[in-house]
């Protein structure tokens, strides 16, 4: 019997579009208020620094994807390049992203609905998001998955209208000269520490560019196409974020908002009235709902793969619903975890997600360095020292520095999670006397 294989049909631009769709570009407006507050009114500068950091990390993802042209992740790269135990810990830390990403998405959605309907407690919207998404994922998401392309167009259309109306508002108040200003990048109270604090949160908007590597086995000439797609997707996203951050900061300088978590809704009403505010809200809620649906589906399937392989209790997580064939254990657990959002705000939750992302980025950069040094020792021809040593070293340093600027609660929770993972690894390997169990991230 012939084994089934993925078909190589994807080219460069479809990969880039899928990467951008996974990142949900509208999130630059969804998080505008908290980044403006953290960076003291210098959102485009915060995104500029983050784009700089992501450029070096994207370079490393591209190199590793060329080295291992299979569907994979930071876990795969660290395992193959450094050590299986290091890879396990990287994978364990990445679970923070998978596990709590739905929580952040639904928090943002609830904040924007709360801005439109202030008399309704936001926790009701949050619970509504969790329940509706959980029910849909429980019975399957094939129909919802087909809406991704339409959703992407809806998001970009709302974003373009937002930018045009912002420029029109600024031009109407101050003429052509008012469209050109350094204030969104520097102001009288700008300091590097403050801007970096904003950059550490802005990294949330880049989560997902590495998802392109999961399509490696379906890509034509993946050794060339995947690295190029990763770099271009990251740069395109950075340009979008900087441009939208600049125009939005122009129309609303400073950090004063009625509600920081839903600041863009307030600005939408300012520049386009109630009609556009309603359109913008619809785009934001739709984007957040579909992102939450996808995020919960991903984590549930990841937990299923881990349960099936015995890394987690098989009876709970390795079980599929007999009718719907969905991993109900992971779906229910992710829904319960999302209720923790009742005790977080958007900034704290996004910082928690970024802890796991930064660990992944650091070890992808380090994987390139380890791979290069191993190849050099074995006399294997490799690329330039600039791309394989200097760039990854810069990426490691900048990412680690951004991680130190995260919310203290996020660092504490992240550190505790890492410690739990280490103890669990010791238990699974009987004190490192047995092989390290595999985490199949590519299957999610």
UniProtKB/TrEMBL annotation:
| Lineage: superkingdom | Bacteria
User: Does the keyword section mention Transmembrane?
Assistant: yes
Q: How the protein sits in the membrane?
A: Multi-pass membrane protein
> Where exactly are the transmembrane stretches of this chain?
12-36, 42-65, 86-108, 120-139, 151-171, 191-209, 229-247, 267-287, 324-344, 350-373, 385-404, 410-428
UniProt main location, coarse: membrane
| The keyword S-adenosyl-L-methionine is annotated on this UniProt entry | no
Question: InterPro entries, from UniProt?
Answer: AA-permease/SLC12A_dom, APC_superfamily
Pinpoint the Amino acid permease/ SLC12A domain residues.
Answer: 25-403
**Location of this chain's protein in the cell:** Membrane
Q: Which UniProt keywords apply?
A: Membrane, Transmembrane, Transmembrane helix
Q: Any idea what this protein is called?
A: Amino acid permease
Enumerate the Gene3D superfamilies for this protein: Amino acid/polyamine transporter I
One short Pfam family name for this protein? AA_permease
**Signal peptide boundaries:** none
């Amino acid at each position: 019997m012939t084994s089934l294989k993925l078909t190589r049909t994807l080219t460069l631009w479809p990969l880039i579009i899928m990467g951008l769709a996974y990142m949900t570009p509208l999130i630059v407006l969804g998080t505008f208020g908290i980044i403006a507050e953290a960076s003291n009114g210098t959102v485009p500068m915060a995104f500029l620094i983050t784009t700089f950091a992501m450029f070096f990390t994207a370079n490393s993802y591209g190199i590793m994807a060329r080295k291992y042209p299979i569907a994979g992740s930071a876990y795969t790269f660290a395992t193959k390049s450094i050590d299986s135990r290091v890879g396990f810990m990287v994978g364990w830390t990445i679970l923070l992203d998978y596990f709590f990403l739905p929580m952040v998405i639904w928090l943002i959605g609830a904040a924007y609905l709360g801005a439109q309907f202030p008399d309704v407690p936001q926790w009701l919207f949050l619970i509504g998001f969790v329940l509706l998404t959980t029910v849909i994922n429980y019975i399957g998401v094939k129909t919802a998955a087909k809406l991704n392309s339409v959703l992407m167009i809806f998001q970009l259309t709302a974003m373009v209208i937002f930018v045009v109306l912002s420029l029109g508002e600024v031009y109407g108040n101050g003429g052509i000269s008012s469209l050109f200003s350094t204030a969104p990048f520097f102001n009288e109270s700008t300091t590097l520490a403050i801007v970096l604090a904003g950059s550490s949160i802005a990294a949330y908007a880049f989560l997902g560019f590495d998802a392109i590597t999961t399509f490696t086995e379906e890509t034509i000439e993946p050794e060339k196409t995947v690295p190029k797609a990763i770099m271009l997707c990251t740069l395109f996203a950075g340009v979008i974020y900087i441009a939208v951050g600049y125009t939005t900061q122009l129309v609303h300088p400073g950090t004063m908002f009625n509600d920081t978590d839903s600041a863009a809704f307030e600005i939408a009403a300012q520049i386009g009235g109630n009609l556009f505010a309603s359109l913008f809200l619809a785009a934001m809620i739709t984007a957040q709902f579909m992102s939450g649906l996808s995020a919960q589906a991903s984590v549930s399937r990841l937990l299923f793969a881990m349960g099936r392989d015995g890394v987690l209790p098989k009876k709970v997580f390795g079980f599929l619903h007999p009718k719907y064939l969905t991993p109900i254990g992971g779906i229910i657990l992710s829904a319960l975890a999302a209720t923790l959002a009742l005790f977080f705000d958007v900034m704290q939750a996004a910082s928690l997600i970024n802890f796991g992302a930064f660990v992944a980025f650091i070890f992808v950069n380090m994987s390139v360095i380890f791979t290069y040094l191993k190849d050099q020792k074995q006399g294997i021809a490799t690329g330039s020292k600039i791309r394989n040593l200097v760039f990854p070293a810069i990426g490691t340093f900048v990412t680690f520095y951004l991680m130190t600027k995260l919310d203290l609660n996020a660092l504490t929770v992240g550190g505790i999670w890492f410690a739990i993972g280490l103890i669990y690894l010791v238990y699974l390997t009987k004190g490192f006397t047995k092989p390290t169990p595999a985490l199949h991230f590519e299957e999610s």
